[in-house]
Write a structure and sequence with these properties.
single chain; alpha/beta; Rossmann fold; 2 domains; binds 5,10-Methenyltetrahydrofolate
Length: 290
C-alpha cells in the first residue's frame, strides 16, 4: 500500500482562471465590436438537473459581461417550432453561440435540431460540420466537456502522446469526441462501453482513464493501474440513507484516489471546465464572426 494519495486536478480553479482571461478579452474586443458576446440557451421541459446547469451557464455569462438569451419551452413544444426559433437565432446578430440543452423530451429529434444550428454558432460543437472537422483533425468548435478534459490535462502538463488512454463511454457528447481529441494528441485510444468484455482488464491498462458512463461510482480502485491519471466526467446526484443528496462521479473516489497519481474531484472537476469551454467557444465565435 502506498501512503500517498493522488494529486487533485482542480477544474474549478482553472475554470475561474479561463473565465477571468475571457472577461479581459471581452473588455478589449467590445469597444471595437460594439456589443457583448451573446449565448442563447434552449431548454425544453422541466428536468431539474438541466435547470441547474442552465442557470449556472447564465450566471457565468453575466459574470463575464456576456449577454445570455434563455429560451425555456414547455415539454410538449414541437420540432417545427424549435427549428424556427433556432433559425431566428442563426440570423440574430446579437447571438454568437447557440446551445440546446440535452437530453430533450423523447418526441423530439435532437439530431435534426442540432443540424439546424449554424455551424459557426455551434457553441457545443455538436453540428456534423464541427464533428467532421474534429474527425479530420482540423480546427473548429469543440464539444465543451471533452475540450475541458483536454485543457485540464494540458494545464497540469500531463503527457498524452504515446500513452494508453481508455475512455469508458461512447456518447456523442463526450466519449466519441474525446477519443478523437486524445488521438489527435497521439495517445493510443481505447473506447470501452456497456458491451465491452472484461472491462476491468482494459481499464487496468490505462495510463489515462476517463470515466464517462453515467453510473455512480462505477469505476473502483481495483480497476485502475497504479500511477494512472483518473478523469471523472460523471455527475450523479444520489440520495443517502439520511435523505441528503450528494454529487458523486463515475469514479469511486475513495478507492481510486489512493491508486492514481492524478484524479479529478466531483464537484469541482470537469463540470466547471465544461461551462468554461462553452463560454470560450462563444467568445471564439464572437471574435471570428466580425
Ligand atoms: N447540449 C448540452 N451541452 C452540455 O454541455 C450539457 C448538456 N447539454 N446537458 C447536461 C450536461 C451536464 N453539464 C454540466 C455542466 C456543468 C456542471 C457543473 O458546473 N457542475 C459543478 C457542480 C454543479 C452542481 O452543484 O450541481 C461541478 O461539477 O463542480 C455539471 C454538468 C453540461 N451538459
Amino acid at each position: 500500500m502506498r501512503s500517498t494519495t493522488a494529486c487533485l486536478l482542480n477544474g474549478k480553479a482553472l475554470a475561474e482562471k479561463i473565465q477571468g482571461d475571457l472577461k479581459e478579452l471581452i473588455t478589449i474586443l467590445q469597444p471595437k465590436i460594439g456589443r457583448p458576446p451573446g449565448l442563447a440557451v434552449l431548454m425544453v421541459g422541466d428536468d431539474p438537473a438541466s435547470a441547474v446547469y442552465v442557470r449556472n451557464k447564465e450566471r457565468a455569462c453575466a459574470k463575464l459581461g456576456m449577454a445570455s438569451f434563455g429560451h425555456h419551452f414547455p415539454g410538449q413544444t414541437s420540432q417545427t417550432e424549435l427549428e424556427k426559433v433556432i433559425q431566428e437565432l442563426n440570423q440574430d446578430p446579437r447571438v454568437d453561440g447557440i446551445l440546446v440543452q440535452l437530453p430533450l423530451p423523447p418526441h423530439l429529434d435532437s439530431v435534426a435540431l442540432l443540424h439546424t444550428i449554424a455551424p459557426e454558432k455551434d457553441a457545443d460543437g455538436l453540428h456534423p460540420m464541427n464533428l467532421g472537422r474534429l474527425v479530420r483533425g482540423e480546427s473548429g468548435l469543440r464539444s465543451c466537456t471533452p475540450a475541458g478534459v483536454m485543457r485540464l490535462l494540458e494545464e497540469y502538463q500531463i503527457e498524452v502522446a504515446g500513452k494508453h488512454a481508455v475512455v469508458v463511454g461512447r456518447s456523442i457528447l463526450v466519449g466519441k469526441p474525446l477519443g478523437l481529441m486524445l488521438l489527435k494528441k497521439n495517445a493510443t485510444v481505447t473506447i470501452a462501453h456497456s458491451r465491452t468484455q472484461n472491462l476491468a482488464e482494459i481499464t487496468r491498462q490505462a495510463d489515462i482513464l476517463i470515466a464517462a458512463v453515467g453510473k455512480p461510482q462505477f469505476i473502483t480502485g481495483d480497476m485502475v493501474k497504479q500511477g494512472a491519471v483518473a478523469i471523472d466526467v460523471g455527475i450523479n446526484r444520489i440520495v443517502k440513507s439520511d435523505d441528503n443528496a450528494i454529487l458523486v462521479g463515475d469514479l469511486d473516489f475513495e478507492s481510486v484516489a489512493p491508486v492514481a497519481d492524478y484524479i479529478t474531484p466531483v464537484p469541482g472537476g470537469i463540470g466547471p471546465m465544461t461551462v468554461a469551454m462553452l463560454l470560450y467557444n462563444t467568445v471564439l465565435s464572437y471574435q471570428d464572426r466580425q
